[in-house]
Amino acid sequence: FVPFTDFLLCGFLQQFECLHARLKMAGVVFEDIFDIKDIDPGGKKFDRVSRLHCESESFKMDLILDVNTQIYPVDLGEKFRLVLVTTLREDGTPDDGEYNMADNDPSRADQFEYVMYGKVYRIDDENVGSDHFTNRLSAYVSYGGLLMRLQGDANNLHGMEIDQHVYLLMKKIAF
């Protein structure tokens, strides 16, 4: 026999934990592990930038991403975790997009090695096949001139909108 007050407390705690988990995920637009399949396939255009061609493990998304390799060198075959978020605040509350060195609050960026801030400038949809059952999207983001195209199943990109500001968070992973 469980007293009614204990039952209410237990239910409240479960709801609180669920709410906490949702807030932790708030602002996350996309997340997956990517494998670098090619680097600068059309030749290197800039000294400090490389264009990566990658494929994700879980969702089989295609990624083309420009990276400043002077500050974040990458190699063919490396794997990295990529997360796209609308805020760096861990509780998911919106931020103003400006970095403040005096702000000592924990940030989602603290767990990553490479961070960029940009804007979604284009989203294309393409129906694949004659039955049009496979709907694919391509989302394009500019990070101050460094470009990204994330392409794949529309269900994985439903959180992206034109003119939306997003942070790109990257961290290499050992495998």
Tell me briefly what this model is:
The protein has 175 residues and is mostly beta strands. The chain has one helix at 4-25, and strands at residues 28-39, 49-56, 62-68, 79-85, 114-128, 134-143, 146-153, 165-173. It has a single domain (27-173), classed as OB fold (Dihydrolipoamide Acetyltransferase, E2P) (Beta Barrel), CATH 2.40.50.140.
The top-level CATH class is: Mainly Beta
Number of strands: 8
The largest beta-sheet arranges its strands as 1-2-3-7-6-5-8-4
Radius of gyration: 19 Å
Return the CATH architecture.
Beta Barrel
GO molecular function: DNA-directed RNA polymerase activity
Keywords: DNA-directed RNA polymerase, Nucleus, Transcription
Subcellular location: Nucleus
Protein name: DNA-directed RNA polymerases I,II, and III subunit RPABC3
Overview of the molecule:
- The chain has 175 residues and is mainly beta.
- The chain has a single domain, classed as Nucleic acid-binding proteins (OB fold (Dihydrolipoamide Acetyltransferase, E2P), Beta Barrel).
- It contains one helix and eight strands.
- Strand 6 and strand 7 (146-153) form a beta hairpin.
- It is globular and about 45 Å long.
Record keyword descriptors for this entry:
175 residues, globular, OB fold (Dihydrolipoamide Acetyltransferase, E2P), 8 strands, 1 helix, disordered N terminus, single chain, 8-stranded antiparallel barrel, mainly beta
Lay out the secondary structure.
Blueprint: H1 4-25, E1 28-39, E2 49-56, E3 62-68, E4 79-85, E5 114-128, E6 134-143, E7 146-153, E8 165-173
Antiparallel strand pairs: 1-2, 1-4, 2-3, 3-7, 4-8, 5-6, 5-8, 6-7
GO biological process, one term: DNA-templated transcription
Subcellular location: Nucleus
Organism: Hydra vulgaris (Hydra)
